[in-house]
Amino acid sequence: MSKFSLLDHELIPHHEIMDEDDLKTVLTHYNVEREQLPKLKVTDPIALEIGAEPGDVVKVIRKSQTAGEALYYRYVIG
Question: Where do the domains of the chain lie, and which CATH numbers do they carry?
């Protein structure tokens, strides 16, 4: 039996760990520090699956009926 991937489920939005260059752009655009972003526990099943570590920022790309895509950012904590 193969392992089920949460990311393959249709109700789970796409998650990706941001690189530092993209992160700086986002933080500057919103005029925030990474610690001010909503939190995501390192023990969250999605964080475990994508290999997120404390201090990372995860970009969540959700489908939106009005905007097409909506971007959310989460700061990974221990």
Answer: 6-77 (3.90.940.20)
